[in-house]
């Protein structure tokens, strides 16, 4: 065991590990640790000895016992063992409705866990028993003061966070321009005004991360009444930058930093992984436990710390946006995901991290396929963080788009997470094996053999790249639920749009980030950008006229209306 006393800070533990590893002093035998596998682990820490940074007010994990290891899941197992006659919903009656025929029989095991709020199973919207205990255990592991289980994915968490800080129509929220659609939906539900902040953009790849410290400082100066800042970190490609400067700026202004960390539920839980948003000081953090950890799809968590969020109001908002009949299998999977992580500690990540390293080693022998690396281009790299479980590939010859490479990988039995015009994203995780990696490397090897080696390059730097540029800090954009009717729109020449309110969204691809939102006023810079896109014959999603000869705007009117 490594000598990490309770209270050891995350960064201290990480530095200690790195120093010991350099000196060759960390070489624990897995047979001694787990009683089976004889493979050597070079970064294994007993969970009882390793603790993340315990900021003031953080709860310690509950005492461990048979029930506390996974209290909600255990309660459901106890209910199943009783074999009570079900005279309550759901109608499948503990899965027995599917046992009489072959179709759907494989669901019976999961459906046995699919109960409702009965004696012993607690209530997500008013937890007092096993759900409360499970959430408290999760808060301890992820470093929050309070954690809420989500059965509607990170979408539910984003909606609830926005609705709890924007409580009156017209409230201003500072928002990173490249956000998930659930954030836009939250703004609409709240009737809020969004001030969009330009993200930092990598000079070579065009991929964007969080706004810069300078941009956030300027936005807070211009809009001192803003209710908070909401950013997405990491992005879909696993890229990011330090959130600490943004947290410090927000707290100095007395507003919360809200983070959509849907793709970073694993951050901060192993020295080889980036710092989590909570460790960086964020106040409200949404994580999709189902994406990069091991919960069922739609299983997510909302973590809270500090005093800048009204937790009573947040609970009420969560009850609004989540089902009154939450899925117990999803909640049980959240409990089990946390339990497994807590029981195994950093060793939980070793297989997936080893697989990621094997993939990177294998790609060195396949020069046709490049791999994005942190800070690979530009004088001021937009990202210093790259999730080791997100491998972002591209064809260095330029022969295949990301979409085409994606399709060719699927044809070989390897299914990527996503792709765009340039890149393919491979998402690894705790369940990724070396066999999986060998399979994708074999397929890439087959594809590489079909290429012309003389066309390969080591990096996709595009020194003449002209990516769209946004206003660093936008004017407030009103959101609401009432749609703009056809009679309220008009189509004008693009050259005439300066100063008008857009009635449609314009999203250039690449990079896939909205240049204009409906209701946003078109600045001179935006008009120039739109005209440059037209000259370049860029692909754009959203506008009725994809050639950008014309654009739809809101008609001039003497009376303003709320939202759009």
Automatic annotation (TrEMBL):
Keywords recorded for this protein, A-Z: Aminotransferase, Decarboxylase, Lyase, Pyridoxal phosphate, Transferase
Protein family (similarity comment): Belongs to the Orn/Lys/Arg decarboxylase class-I family.
Organism of this sequence: Paenibacillus faecis
UniProt-annotated stretches for the region Disordered: 1-68
Cofactor dependence: pyridoxal 5'-phosphate
Annotated TM spans: none
Sequence ranges assigned to domain Orn/Lys/Arg decarboxylase C-terminal in this UniProt record: 487-540
Domain Orn/Lys/Arg decarboxylases family 1 pyridoxal-P attachment site: 71-365
The protein, known as: Aminotransferase class I/II-fold pyridoxal phosphate-dependent enzyme
InterPro entries per UniProt: Orn/Lys/Arg_deCO2ase_major_dom, Orn_Lys_Arg_decarboxylase-I, Prn/Lys/Arg_de-COase_C, Prn/Lys/Arg_de-COase_C_sf, PyrdxlP-dep_Trfase, PyrdxlP-dep_Trfase_major
């Amino acid at each position: 065991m490594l000598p990490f006393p309770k209270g050891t800070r995350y960064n201290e533990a990480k530095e200690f590990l790195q120093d010991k590893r350099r000196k060759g002093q960390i070489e624990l035998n897995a047979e001694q640790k787990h009683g089976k596998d004889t493979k050597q682990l070079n970064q294994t820490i007993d969970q009882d000895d390793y603790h993340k940074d315990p900021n003031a007010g953080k709860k310690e994990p509950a005492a461990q016992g048979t029930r506390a290891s996974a209290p909600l899941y255990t309660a459901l197992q106890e209910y199943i063992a009783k074999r009570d006659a079900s005279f309550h919903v759901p109608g499948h009656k503990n899965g027995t409705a599917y046992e009489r025929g072959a179709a759907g029989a494989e669901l019976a095991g999961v459906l046995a866990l699919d109960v409702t709020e009965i004696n012993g199973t607690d209530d997500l919207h008013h937890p007092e028993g096993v759900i409360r205990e499970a959430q408290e255990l999760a808060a301890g592991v992820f470093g929050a003061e309070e954690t809420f289980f989500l059965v509607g994915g990170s979408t539910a968490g984003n909606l609830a966070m926005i609705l709890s800080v924007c409580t009156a129509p017209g409230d201003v929220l500072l928002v990173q321009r490249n956000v998930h659609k659930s954030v836009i939906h939250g703004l609409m539900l709240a009737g809020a005004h969004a001030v969009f902040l330009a993200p930092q953009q990598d000079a070579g790849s065009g991929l964007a991360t969080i706004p810069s410290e300078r941009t956030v400082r300027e936005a807070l100066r211009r809009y001192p009444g803003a209710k908070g800042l909401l950013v997405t970190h990491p992005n879909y490609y696993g890229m990011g930058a330090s959130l600490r400067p943004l947290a410090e700026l927000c707290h100095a202004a007395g507003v919360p930093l809200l983070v959509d960390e849907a793709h970073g539920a694993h951050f901060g839980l192993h020295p080889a992984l980036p710092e989590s948003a909570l460790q960086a000081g964020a106040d409200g953090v949404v994580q999709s436990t189902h994406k990069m950890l091991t919960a069922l799809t739609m299983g997510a968590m909302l973590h809270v710390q500090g005093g800048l969020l009204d937790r009573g109001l947040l609970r009420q908002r969560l009850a609004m946006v989540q089902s009154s009949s939450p899925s117990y299998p999803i909640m049980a999977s959240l409990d089990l995901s946390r339990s497994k992580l807590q029981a195994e500690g950093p060793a939980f990540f070793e297989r997936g991290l080893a697989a990621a390293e094997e993939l990177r080693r294998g790609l060195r022998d396949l020069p046709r396929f490049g791999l994005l690396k942190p800070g690979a281009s530009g004088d001021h790299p937009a990202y210093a963080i790259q999730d080791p479980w997100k491998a972002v590939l591209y064809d260095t010859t330029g022969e295949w788009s990301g979409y085409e490479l994606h399709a060719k990988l699927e044809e070989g039995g390897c299914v990527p997470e996503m792709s765009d015009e340039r890149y393919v994203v491979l998402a690894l995780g705790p369940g990724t094996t070396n066999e999986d990696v060998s399979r994708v490397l074999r397929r890439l090897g087959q594809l590489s053999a079909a290429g012309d080696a003389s066309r390969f390059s080591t990096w996709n730097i595009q020194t003449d790249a002209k990516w769209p540029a946004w206003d660093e800090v936008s004017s407030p954009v009103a959101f609401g639920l009432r749609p703009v009717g056809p009679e309220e729109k008009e189509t004008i020449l693009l050259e005439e749009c300066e100063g008008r309110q857009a009635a449609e969204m314009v999203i250039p691809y690449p990079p896939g980030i909205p240049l204009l939102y409906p209701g946003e006023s078109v600045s001179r810079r935006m008009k120039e950008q739109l005209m440059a896109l037209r000259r370049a014959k860029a692909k754009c999603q959203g506008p009725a006229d994809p050639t950008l000869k014309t654009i739809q705007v809101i008609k001039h009117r003497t009376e303003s209306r709320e939202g759009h």
